[in-house]
Amino acid sequence: MWRAELALQFRRLRVKALLLVLAGIPALLAVAVRLSGGPEAGRGPTFLDQVSHNGVFAALAGLTVTIPFFLPLTVAIVAGDSVSGEASLGTLRYLLARPAGRSRLLAVKAATVAVYCVAAAVAVAAGGLIAGALLFPLGRVTTLSGGTLSLWAGTLRTLAAAVVVGLSMLGVAAIGLFISTLTDVPVGAMAATAGLFVLSGVLDVVPEAHALHPWLFTHNWLAFGDLLRQPVQWSQIGKDLTLQLGYLAVFGAAAWARFTTKDVLA
Is residue 99 classed as helix, strand or coil in its secondary structure? Predict the structure, then answer.
């Protein structure tokens, strides 16, 4: 059942288009750096000033640029459509007619959205790596600690960073899945999910809301950069992933409670 859902999800034109757009953002960023020569050291988003020296940084800069809005927006679209989309199309009743049951169907939907989260972040990294390799020289990767890594090790850490970023989207995915069980209008679920991650991001930069910052699912989204240190600093990454798992548990349980008791009319 999960394999069929996964295949169906990634065959959809909308999902393919979203992944293509995500991969294109770091590619366009690399082209802009190539044409302009890039910002001065210390200017612009993290890693951007290193792109012209080493193409690997195009992937890391791409992750930095897409995290605040583009990446979570695509997750909100996919998660918000997961259940409400089936209801809107009138196929939810037929899916529930299978002997698998509501809990299993919801678990399959959740797992598929989680896979999309990681795939979306990897698409950003892959687009950056390909564009960086085509437009800039490749070599040893300078870490944030001042040391260097071999090209192979630096690439592996970049891909690991993409996986961490993908897992950092689980909070958005869980919220979107829950909202998707509340409505039969996919656009409404997508918009509500997007609005919540924008609100979280705004609160995260408001000093007066500092007491809320550790509990906002957007707070440690940029912690993936600690993978580019020697040695790797796991503290903030661990806090980020633990918080995402907390959101996943709370909103996943809420989604289950709602979905297993709601009247399905479509």
Answer: coil
